[in-house]
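Exercise: predict the structure of this protein bound to pyridoxal-5'-phosphate.
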Amino acid sequence: MGGLFELAKQHDASCVMQTYARKPVMFVRGSGMRLYDDEGCEYLDFVSGIGAVNLGHAHPAVTAAVAEQAAKLVHVSNLFYVEHRAELACDINRLLGGGMKVFFANSGAEANEGAIKLARRWAGAAKPGAVTVVTTHRSFHGRTLAALAATGQPGKQEAFAPLPSGFVHVPLNDLDALDAALDEGAAAFLVEVVQGEGGVWPATPEYLLGAEALCRERSALFMLDEVQTGFFRTGPAFAHQAFGLTPDVVTLAKAMANGLPIGALVARDEVAAAFRTGDHGSTFGGGPVICAAGRATIAALEAEDLGRNAAAMGEYLSAGLRALGERTGLLEGVRGSGLMRGCTLVGIDAADVAARLLERRMVVNHIGAQTLRFLPPLVCGREEIDTLLGILSDVLEEAAK
Ligand code: PLP
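Solution:
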């Protein structure tokens, strides 16, 4: 590794909080699906900044939109109207089918914090006494305290007790458990269409449709966390659209500005009306630079028809992984939707496999010791998938020895 990398590693160890086990590589440049390290070595990126760079790296339309707006005006706050904010909200409303209003935040956790606040505010008038937000085991909704309380992963929560109260966790895809949890105290149900950080576990269509019906029956908000599944990752603009669902609230972030920090809380008009002036806010949310990037991102995702590519390449990747599993017996449980795929390794360590893949210049994420996750940019093609599968086959055999 080069001197630039060694220096960054040293300074990181001495001055950056060590909340991540960083991989031994420093990326300095990217283009489409390709990343380049400080020595100019080329990698294929199957992580896309944890599902955030859906257009691929350094997309020229996003670069131009950011540069143009940054040269004009960067920040004045939400106290004033600015260019691009309302237009981006209109784009999101259109992609969701209309009748929605948007609050701009800066991350997925913040979008979910907003959703939790909105649910309580809404219930205050619509279902007095209801404060609970029901979520699922293994879910992930963010690292801030309420989003962490919503997250169904005790291992991430225990060190930070006491967490805010008012959260109930139920097993995913179990409608009876949800039926029991959605009582008179429940203000909302919040669920990922495909659990991402929990290991790429899809909610079934029957579960989602049943959950929506139960929420309507019990006067609880049906809230979807589409932070990871949004913006054509699974094929449609938003994953729930494949099942004809009508959520009351949708939370978004990650790919909305192709890797720049942004989040959004989106709610049906009647639900959004529960927030009154002064109820919620953000210094940076909805700024003109990030919103210019968001508009350029959505325009390019649509113009390049990347949802269609995500659906087709997702099937191709999934079939390739399944065939590899059948041939080697070293992976199973291929799952997911579009270009959000996961599989379980059999008898070999996923961290070890991911490290070996990185040495072979394939950037792949592992979740825990068993799961490999694939989240490439949506420009991913057959050739890149074939390259990955060939190298993965070698690496699995090596790791199994
Ligand atoms: N919700 C989901 C479904 C996520 O996958 C994530 C992040 O991985 C979050 C929320 C939190 O987003 P952020 O890291 O932007 O706060």
